[in-house]
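Final paragraph of the annual report: two paired records, presented back to back.
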Amino acid sequence: MWSYLGKSAIFLGGCCSGAAAATFWRSEERRQQIKSGEYYQLKGSYYQVLGHAWDHFRRDFCVVYRPLYHCEARDGRFEAHLLATSHFERFDEFKKVSFDEMDLAAQSCALPGPFFHDQYWGLPPRTAPVSSAQEAKDVQKSVLADLTSTKTPTTSGYGTRSHQEHAIKPQL
């Protein structure tokens, strides 16, 4: 009987050691994926770029990103959100930073990428500017000005949808 216990203990010890090594390897792999992400900073807040997406409304590409903080609605600015998009000209204001430059709160919100998978995709994952597109940019600015002047009954005053059932207006 004691001979079976010794073999079982060695077997279980090997299983536990293997499981611990696999767990360590996967957590290190996840950490490297997170560290290799694309991060930006603007006015003390950090953001993670998820990619470039086609905006059907603007008929142009935009940057898809996520704030690395809890993002409540702000009157005159934006609705509460988990993901956001921006045109590239605005995103030029953001400063690119490494994962290690961010504070711990922002680091804890970062997700491992990549955020897409298409085995048939043969183009670069990021878009590049095209020449002779100034007329389209001017029209987009004009539309943005019209949208900015139109108010809705949301907390921010913008948009036709919200995560909040009722708008919250600050009392102070």
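The closing record of the year follows.
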Amino acid sequence: MEIKVQTYLDAVDTGQYQVQNFTADAADFAAQEMAANLRTMFDTFSAQVATGALVHSELTINDFKVELETGIINLPFANNNRVDNFYADLNQAVPVVVNLIVEAPNLNASAFHIDTLGPVDQIGDAMFEQMCVLVQAAWTTAQAPAEAPTTNE
């Protein structure tokens, strides 16, 4: 699936994309239900993408967020105003990709991480498994106690 850069920018700017919100209990998500929760989100996202729609899907577990977004570069919809900086020709058709975004206070210094999982044309079990590995790693990092700042005395 391809989209013209300007068409993408206009659609995101005007909110012309599908929005899906999911929630999960932290205890269930941490135990055996992580893959099941992610599968529901991924399958719903995939079904919307198959219709040709741009999509933002979000799974919230307390202050830990997992998001899937269609994109044309590894920037979230929230940073749409920066996307055109990467393209000389806004009428150029480019592949639509799946971005995995994770937000959590203890994740890293920015509390944010984004990975491009691949083109939407390759949505399938391999992409789902890649997503699960990345989310599991982020979840483990985010659940670890924050390190106390070091001081030079």
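The radius of gyration is 17 Å. This concludes the annual technical report; the extension proposal builds directly on these records.
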